[in-house]
Design goal:
This protein has about 500 residues and is an alpha/beta fold. It has 2 domains: about 10-85 and about 265-480, Aminopeptidase; about 85-260, Glucose Oxidase, domain 1 (3-Layer(bba) Sandwich), CATH 3.50.30.30. It is built from 13 helices and 20 strands. The strands form 4 sheets. Strands 1, 2, 9, 13, 14, 17, 18, 19 and 20 form a 9-stranded mixed sheet that branches. The chain has a 6-stranded mixed sheet with strand order 4-10-8-7-6-11. Strands 3-12-5 form a 3-stranded antiparallel sheet, with no helix packed on it. Helix 2 (about 25-35) packs across helix 8 (about 310-325). The longest helix is centred in the middle third of the chain and has 20 residues, at about 310-325. The model is unreliable at about 1-20 and about 130-135 (pLDDT under 50). GO terms for molecular function: aminopeptidase activity; metal ion binding; metalloexopeptidase activity. It holds the Pfam family Peptidase_M28. This is M28 family peptidase. InterPro entries: M28_fam, Peptidase_M28.
């Protein structure tokens, strides 16, 4: 059942701040992780009772730490989401259904529960690539307004890698196509193609999708276009011609698509610690609190993806960083503490926050994202995911050395730079990194990613928190340093 979370009760938000205290302990960090990753929270899937429980818990912790509501007078920022699933699809040519063999497959998704397209021009766009194999004859600026665009979802002969068919569908959508349908290479198994098309079919309600998007098998294309003397092999030959240009196919096509669609809200949690200097600037700490919920079918012994390391650990760290900084001397700059929803669905909560921030993004001087921190033991060197890409490195290294931490300068960890919420801010010109020891040991990193990652085995019991608590202490120091204009000047954008 979809849960639409309302504001927390007034008694919760008026809870008294905690008194000043020493640095947090492993036990305090573990208590948050065990709560957030418990079976009672059902894996914290966006829009569920489990996420509602998690967000209430986080908001309560922020209020008790003495943070102010950070989003329009509230701790909760609603994130409107849409999920669509495979339904039924039908294409008729000249008013008749094609005589399709059993190998003919069709997967179409609509932007509404029921969509019918009739009378639209049907345009064949070859491979749908922006440039030809020689880098010329680009039609990147072409418009396809109102058209049904068909394209070959593979790549031309001699091309070993290229844009995915989903990215090409998005390109045609952005250029006005009513429908964008890729014809799958016969060498790609249909189930693999289907899985690729259905990947991350949850998106922000503000995201625009074409009326119809999808894929069909080569056998379906053969059946559809037999009446006009076309088939997959012929379309492939057309696309291979040196002078190929998108062309209209002489067909009368009617498309009917039924798509099950769910609309629901996830929630970001936003707390604010006002600075003493009235600078109008802020440091931002983020972590995503969502995970995959009940992720195995009924009848399995363990059905819940609890997400203890990913990312109850990062969420717990944000809570403890907030609590400790708030209990000490007031920083000069504001500090925002945000936990996001729907990160696992494509960084969607972070995108919503960045698109509708409580303050101008240009006034956020640094973003520190905490994700999957409970891997390494104490003494792990500090790495920066995003090293060399922002002006943050020098002060991060200085603060880490002041904390007695070794520095890992390798750039291999930058392979993860676009796989966390910080990337959303980096793309918008805000300096954003992930800092810590979890990803600097390839063996530990690979062991987690190839093991319990995104599986029910990622549970709180027996977690190694030595490195995680050191990373919490480091982020407390980073928050104080970057919130001090004397230590970190406003970066040039």
């Amino acid at each position: 059942m979809i849960v639409r979370l309302l504001a927390a009760a007034a008694a919760l938000l008026l809870a008294a701040p905690l008194p000043a205290q020493a640095l947090p302990t492993e036990g305090e960090l573990r208590a948050h992780i065990e709560t957030l990753a418990s079976d009672a929270f059902q894996g914290r899937q966006p829009g569920t009772q489990g996420e509602a429980m998690a967000t209430q818990y986080i908001a309560q912790q922020m209020a008790q730490a003495g943070l102010q509501p950070g989003y329009g007078g509230n701790f909760f920022q609603p994130v409107a989401l849409v999920e669509r699933r495979e339904g039924q699809a039908r294409i008729r040519i000249g008013g008749a259904d094609p005589a399709a063999p059993e190998t003919a497959q069709l997967l179409l998704l609509g932007n509404m529960e029921n969509v019918e397209l009739a009378g639209a021009p049907v345009l064949f766009a070859g491979y749908g690539l922006d440039t030809g194999r020689d880098g010329e004859d680009s039609f990147a600026d072409a418009r396809f307004d109102g058209a049904v665009v068909l394209f070959l979802a593979g790549w031309p002969e001699g091309m070993d890698d290229g844009p995915s068919y989903r990215s090409r569908i998005a390109s045609f959508r952005e250029r006005g196509a009513q429908a964008a349908i890729g014809i799958i290479d016969p060498d790609l198994p249909w189930q693999a193609a289907r899985a690729g098309m259905m990947f991350r079919q949850t998106y922000l309600a503000s995201h625009v999708v074409a009326p119809v998007e999808g894929i069909m098998s080569a056998a379906m294309a053969d059946a559809l276009f037999a009446g006009i003397g076309r088939n997959y092999a012929g379309l492939e030959a057309m696309a291979a011609q040196e002078d190929f240009a998108p062309s209209i196919l002489d067909v009368d096509m009617v498309i009917n698509v039924t798509t099950p669609i769910d609309r629901f809200d996830g929630f970001n949690i936003v707390g604010r610690l006002p600075g003493s200097g009235n600078t109008g600037e802020a440091v931002l700490f983020t972590a995503h609190h969502d995970h995959f919920g009940i992720c195995r079918p009924e009848g399995r012994e363990d059905r819940i993806c609890n997400g203890a390391v990913d990312n109850a650990s990062g969420t717990a760290a944000v809570i403890e960083v907030a609590r400790t900084i708030a209990a000490g001397p007031r920083p000069v700059r504001d500090i925002l503490f945000v936990t996001t929803t729907a990160e696992e669905l494509g960084l969607l909560g972070a995108i919503e926050f960045a698109d509708h921030p409580p303050m101008p993004l240009d006034d956020i001087v640094a973003v520190f994202n905490l994700d999957t921190i409970a891997i390494a033991p104490r003494g792990a060197p500090v790495g920066i995911i995003g090293r060399g890409m922002t002006p943050l490195d020098d002060l991060i290294d200085t603060v880490a050395r002041e904390a007695g931490r070794d520095i890992y300068t390798g750039l291999d960890v930058n392979a993860f730079v676009n796989r966390h919420d910080g990337w959303v801010f980096f793309e918008r010109g805000v300096p954003a990194v992930m800092v810590g020891g979890s990803f600097t040991d390839p063996e530990l990193r690979t062991g987690f990613l190839s093991g319990p990652y995104h599986a029910p085995e990622d549970e709180a019991e027996g977690l190694e928190l030595g490195g995680a608590i050191e990373d919490v202490w480091l982020h407390i120091a980073l928050g104080r340093a970057f919130a001090d204009p004397a230590r970190y000047r406003t970066p040039q954008r």
